[in-house]
Design goal:
- The chain is of the alpha/beta class and about 375 residues long.
- It has two domains: about 190 residues, FAD/NAD(P)-binding domain; about 170 residues, FAD/NAD(P)-binding domain (3-Layer(bba) Sandwich).
- Strands 1, 2, 3, 4, 5 and 20 form a six-stranded mixed sheet that branches. Strands 7-18-8-9-14 form a five-stranded parallel sheet, with helices on one face. Strands 15-16-17 form a three-stranded antiparallel sheet, with no helix packed on it.
- Helix 1 packs parallel to helix 10.
- The protein is globular.
Length: about 375
Amino acid sequence: MTEQVLVVGAGPAGLAVAAVLRKRGVQPLVVDRGGAVGDSWRARYDRLHLHTPRVQSALPGLRIPRAYGRWVARDDVVRYLEDYAAHHGIEPRFRTTVRRLDREGPGWTARTDDGDLQAAQVVVASGYNSAPLRTTWAGAETFGGTLLHASEYANAAPYRGRDVLVVGAGNTGAEIAADLAEGGAARVRLAVRTPPNVIPRQLGPVPITLLGVSLDVTPARLADPLNRLLQRRFVGDLTRYGLPAAPQGVVAQQRATGVTPTIDVGLIEALKAGRVTPVAALECFADGEAVLADGTRLRPDVVIAATGYTCGLEPVVGHLGVLDERGRPLVRGARTAPSAPGLRFVGISNPLKGLLFQIGLDARAAGRAVARDLRQGR
């Protein structure tokens, strides 16, 4: 059987696309490798909250309940996604992993472990942080402590009284470091390779990501001088506490590297109190010790690698010429690549305005475009 539309992913992006399509009279097949709606959210650390406020995070067609507060907690995000699927009548097919997509004739074939699926149109919405990026350090086998990826971290309880090195100062690493410091770790060090732009979660009553809506379309040369002023006023000079200054401004760094600023949810206080100590980047392990870029050797009990995630799209669509050098889609929303008509991407980006807000915009655009293509027999 050939489906009209196949949606890959039953997280926020996949559900949003499905809801928009159903409203337009299109019944998509939604598949997901997990066992439930929003599985990727269920697996994240306990402390996690949205960095965008509730009003900026709702998906098309259903508000997030006011009772969830301004900064929605992980478990409430999962509850909202469950309610969203039920509200829109979306029933995904779970434990279905799409291994590869191929253009065949006028449509698409999705290769899965349970057989092939055919569809006229495909929307890939499998998530920006789909697969943990596990760095392999030379000599890691000599390390006698615990080495884990941030995706395996739940809370600080197992690390009370222990010496922990967190590798990576992005949002995940910064928040885990703060969580460990607040949760009773004996010592917390934060290994920094790419100095982050640290920004507050809100300026007075205004959430910082509301300002990010305009930053996504503003030239860096205009936006970053103002960003620097705001950082000096509301964050201060964190080099006094050992954190290196970012070499580029918020917008310039995001466009050059894809790295969004680190939104403060406890790191600044921990730095100022001396409960988190920045150190140089981790280079390798030798004789059971962690060797840093400046030659310092440490012997922590635990190393937590907050080294990020990948989109995990190369095996699925890498042969189609639709990904950039970092493995991210070249197009999103309504647009399709010339080499892959009828294939769209939603929710696989890292915008300054916030991912859920961007998902809402791109899901609506993709839904309109897919419905139009189906009407025109494409």
